[in-house]
Design brief:
With 98 residues, the protein is mainly β. It has 2 domains: 1-35, no CATH class; 37-98, Signal recognition particle alu RNA binding heterodimer, srp9/1. 12% of the residues lie in helices and 37% in strands. The chain is built from 1 helix and 6 strands, in the order βββαβββ. The protein has one helix at residues 50-61, and strands spanning 16-20, 23-27, 43-46, 65-71, 76-83, 89-95. A 4-stranded mixed beta sheet has the order 3-6-5-4, with helices on one face. The model has no long low-confidence stretch (mean pLDDT 88).
Length: 98
């Protein structure tokens, strides 16, 4: 749809879908003049396996800022927090094995 918007809009994302297992997370760029930096929340992902948590965390952290490195905690096999390259805050949690 790049030809249907102005030059600045041609580099925006109309919409995107992230599949996490059987769950979908969808998002889109803000309309021109409406963007505000995300704050006061975190997109939280509950991941079933430590290997998947590590892979997802690594991909989200690429060109971003890790706030809490992905690590084992008393409540989780893996837990970490980051802000991705698009300024979206993420929390990744992988519960303890049962």
């Amino acid at each position: 749809m790049a030809e249907q918007v102005d030059a600045a809009g041609s580099k925006k994302i109309l919409h995107a879908t992230l599949a996490v297992g059987s769950h979908l997370l969808q998002g889109a760029d803000a309309l021109p003049g409406h963007y505000q930096k995300p704050q006061g929340f975190s997109v939280m992902l509950q991941i079933d396996s430590a290997a998947d948590a590590e892979r997802i965390f690594k991909n989200l952290a690429e060109n971003g800022t890790v706030q809490v490195p992905l690590q084992e905690t008393f409540w989780a096999a893996r837990f970490g927090m980051l802000v991705d390259q698009f300024a979206t805050p993420w929390t990744v949690n992988c519960g303890q094995p049962k």
